[in-house]
From TrEMBL:
It comes from Geococcyx californianus (Greater roadrunner). It is a multi-pass membrane protein. Coiled coil: none annotated. Keywords: Hydrogen ion transport, Ion transport, Membrane, Transmembrane, Transmembrane helix, Transport. This is V-type proton ATPase subunit a. The chain crosses the membrane at residues 233-258, 278-296, 399-418, 430-450, 462-480, 492-516, 624-650.
Amino acid sequence: SFVAGVIHPWRVSAFERLLWRACRGYLVANFVEMPEPMEDPATGESITWVIFLISYWGEQIGQKIRKISDCFHCHVYPYPESETSRADTMNGLHSQIQDLSVVLEETEQYLSQVLDKVMLALPTWRVQVQKMKAIYLVLNQCSFDVTEKCLIAEVWCPVRDLTQVQDALRQGSYKSGSSVECFVQRIPTSESPPTLIRTNKFTAGFQSIVDAYGVASYQEVNPAPYAIITFPFIFAIMFGDVGHGLVMFLFALWMVLYENSPSLQQGSNEIWQTFFEGRYLILLMGAFSIYTGFIYNECFSKATVIFPSAWSVAAMANHSSWSSAYLATHPSLTLDPNVTGVFQGPYPFGIDPVSVPWDAGWDLQLVARSLTFLSPWQIWSLATNHLNFLNSFKMKMSVVLGIVHMGFGVLLGVFNHVHFQQRHRLVLEFLPEMVFLLALFGYLVFLIFYKWIKFSSADSRVAPSILIHFINMFLFTSNADNLPLYQGQVVPVQMVLVVLALVSVPILLLGTPLYLHCRRHALKPGHAGPVAVEEQEALLDGQEAGNSVNASKEDVESGGHSPDAKHVDFSEIFMHQAIHTIEYCLGCVSNTASYLRLWALSLAHAQLSEVLWSMVMRNGFVRLSYVGGVVLVPVFAAFAVLTVAILLVMEGLSAFLHALRLHWVEFQNKFYVGAGYKLCPFAFAPDSWE
């Protein structure tokens, strides 16, 4: 007789050894590995089973073999005795396998159809599940009432949206069939309210710049509306070029026009998402760069001729004895604006493409050997002192704009003082700060404009130095070699201004601490009756006016604008004010110098543009002779790649970071606290698949 089955390959040797010992050799065993591995029905493991066929003599031997097979967890199968029975069994197994294959194939097709239908409904199911989880997460933060039949939620809600919230709760109660109607009730709290600033797709980029510095305290002046103009303008001062600004503007305009495209919105690149979210900011930066580029008269480092030049070489040549020998011995020539017809007035807009406008102490020098071949609009590129003039012009422009920017920041602090009803700060902080800033650096701006207006080309040689006057102003001295700009400049004007600036420092240092100290003594228990009543009435009036849903006036002031709300001890108040005074007084000096980065970055951008043009494109035009038309294609490609990589990306990022620093440190530091936290309302944020 025969016993057939399969066994795990690890148990073959022990199984064969035990069979031989138990049956004393009255058997013939044959072991063969399966050609392909099969899955174990018990464990699911893929195993290459071993098939065995045992021939034995005697019924007792057969019983032993079956018992040993059971002990080794062998899968035993019936083995027919006759050849015909074995063939019938094989045919039956093959037909069963075919039937099972057909059933499995039809089942897979059915499951595939079901999954295809599920894929269409899966996004909707995912949204529903996420919304349900979000709703239950919020409900779990609520608390039960005494009867445990209602949920109580304490939330912040804007006053403007309070009516909508009440209507939504009323509709929810009606649709759910609840027997208890939902209602809203204002509750008092000592917590500082969160800050909600409503933005749209245009203002979101500018607000994110301000929020990166710090979220505005509750009801504090928000710098973002002013940054919509000042930030692109300050960036454009450092990035002024018509060509580069136009490329940036067109790139941002493309993102704005196709902002609803899914391919742009669903980009996985983080850098691309940063550019796309700030597309309106880039759009304004490009537009302002075009404007300042026309002011600088630069387009890819080359000057443009929009209006006729005010300088005339012919008039200078007619009034001068420029012979061939004179031109051979003089490498450069000077155009004298005092000669009739040489300089006919200022350029209508921006910088003259032929030469620089006349400034005190600067002459227009030209290369003599090219003089006879020059048309009037070509002289600008050959002027040897244009960089010196641009340095002077951009340096003074940076100082003027910086002081105006800082003064505007100090002025915005008035709105905070008035809104939070801290009138004493108008006299004890705002007034000394403004006097200190204007008496010193505002006077510097006045000197710059006064010198521009008073001195012309006729007397520019005797124009005094503003820098020496400004240094002597602090030293209370005068320089005989540096003549005064006007009568009485040193005494009494500059002396009075310095004295006013010095007097404002102790007022700024001691005014607020002494006022708060005297006010605290006035609010002792013996005198607190009428004052407390007045403060309570003012508090009620403030809430009736719609300041905050849950905040009292003290809560509002705790956002960082009220030292007496934070610092109870007089020494702490004094220390806080001393730090503020030192920071402001030293900051006025350092911040004014910090605005000189406008001059440095603008000069660097212009020089890099000029170097790139002269080293790449100019060689393509000059040194390639008759094959220039063919070689100019890769030369222009290299010029375009370097322009985008260096001047647009690297220089643009550098100018952006410097403009960011000027707004954070120099501008917002004058009035902005940024000690609040955002309102994070419950909302279903739209995803890409919604």
